[in-house]
Amino acid sequence: MNVRILRSALIDLADGRRFYERQGEGLGDYFFDTLFSDIDALALHGGVHRKIFGFHRALSRRFPFAIYYKMIEGDVLVFRVLDCRQDPRRINDELRTS
């Protein structure tokens, strides 16, 4: 199974990296590496996660972030990587525009 990451998800990852780097030196890189590891795991486990707002949602192991993806022709397409601490209505709105 191939994993493709859309530009919108890459922007989310870059925003999260900047946020965590402001919290502590090196934490942004740790965030980035951890989320990419979680995304890489979708190559093996894609499609097993519960659907929320029409997307499969995989939760990060270490950070309060969720990876929203769809299975398309046997491949994983990552649409967004969003902070779970925000209002669910905002998450839904952000996913609708993806």
Can you walk me through this structure?
- Helices cover 45% and strands 28% of the residues.
- It contains four helices and five strands, in the order E-H-H-H-E-E-E-E-H.
- It has a five-stranded mixed β-sheet.
- It has helices at 7-23, 27-40, 42-45, 88-96, and strands spanning 3-5, 51-52, 55-59, 65-72, 75-83.
- Helix 1 runs antiparallel to helix 2 (27-40).
- The two termini are 22 Å apart.
- It has one domain: 2-Layer Sandwich (YaeB-like fold), CATH 3.30.2310.20.
- The longest helix has 17 residues, at 7-23.
- With 98 residues, the protein is an alpha+beta fold.
- A hairpin with a 5-residue loop joins strand 3 (55-59) and strand 4.
Short description:
By secondary structure, the protein is of the alpha+beta class. It has helices at 7-23, 27-40, 42-45, 88-96; strands at 3-5, 51-52, 55-59, 65-72, 75-83.
Overall geometric form:
globular
Helix content: 40-55%
What is the helix/strand order? EHHHEEEEH
Report the count of strand segments: 5
Which sheet architecture does the biggest sheet show?
5 strands, mixed
- The number of helical segments is 4
Strand coverage percent: 25-35%
CATH architecture: 2-Layer Sandwich
Radius of gyration, whole Å: 13 Å
Measured between the Cα atoms of the first and last residue, the distance is 22 Å
Strand order of the largest sheet: 1-5-4-3-2
Counted up, domains total 1
Low-confidence stretches: none
CATH fold node name: YaeB-like fold
Average pLDDT for all residues: 96
Helix/sheet category: alpha+beta
CATH superfamily: RelE-like
